[in-house]
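Protocol step 4 of 6: structure prediction from sequence.
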Amino acid sequence: DLLFWLCVKSGAKNIVDIGVGHSTTSFALAAKRNGGRLFSTDIGTQYDLDVKECYDIWDHMLGHDSVEVGKLYNVAERGYIDFLYLDTSHTYEQTLKELEIWMPHMKLGGWFVLHDVNSCMSTVFRAVSDYIIKVNDVNIEYHHYPYAYGFGILIRRK
């Protein structure tokens, strides 16, 4: 799984998964392998990891909006995020709010990965573009990969 290997090879220890699904197990396995932790949130209320031995490193807040959870995310308690995966509603407004709320929690050099950028050009890709223009930060890199409906990766440098 591409996401598993991106986390493993980057050495990500503090992984956040917004929009719990099939990828959550990959993130849990990567966090376990890297000696880290996984935090997940989803508006849905139920999800079980396929890999029971990862439950000890998995924290989650299910049944809550990701923007509200982002406002509550405590960097002093949980640490800055090494790798964040966003795969939620894919609406323009929600994606833009998620970028605004979650990006300040990213570690310098951390990866903020968005899914379905190609298949949602008028919503997800537009939100990413507008966010970059809005913050006007020359230290934000954007990389676009067309695989699996498209991945957008934001990396905040110095």
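Step 5 (inspection) to follow. The longest helix spans residues 121-135.
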